[in-house]
Task: inverse folding
């Protein structure tokens, strides 16, 4: 697993007096599913698994901590920011936590919900 595959991906924002437009394009996979995590319990964590699809995670509001692990060990432990997204290759274990009450997270995935498999340990 190449460490740089887990690096934050800059997101270009177009801001003017009307507000901000943030396109998500040129991802390293075809998008099959998009979902949002909202109304998150600030005392609990989400994910705690690896999946068999690629994901791209973007923080829309609030704050959150992202932790990733491969079979080689912890690869990333960071606060999500508004100007970056995180590409997570299939098989990497992920955990989200430390949510502020207003957190909303957007996730783009390379497989449909029905085709996604979940694993309790890193797969790569």
Result:
């Amino acid at each position: 697993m190449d460490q740089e595959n887990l690096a934050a991906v800059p997101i270009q924002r177009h801001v003017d007096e009307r507000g901000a437009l943030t396109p998500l394009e040129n991802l390293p996979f075809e998008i099959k599913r998009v979902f949002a995590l909202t109304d998150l319990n600030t005392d609990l964590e989400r994910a705690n698994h690896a999946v068999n699809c690629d994901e791209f995670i973007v923080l829309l509001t609030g704050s959150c901590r992202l932790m990733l692990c491969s079979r080689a060990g912890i690869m990333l432990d960071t606060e999500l920011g508004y100007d970056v997204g995180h590409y997570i290759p299939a098989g990497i274990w992920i955990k989200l936590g430390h949510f502020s009450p207003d957190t909303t997270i957007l996730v783009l995935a390379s497989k449909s919900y029905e085709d996604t498999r979940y694993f309790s340990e890193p797969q790569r």
User: Anything to note?
Assistant: The chain has a mean pLDDT of 89. The chain has no helices and twelve strands.
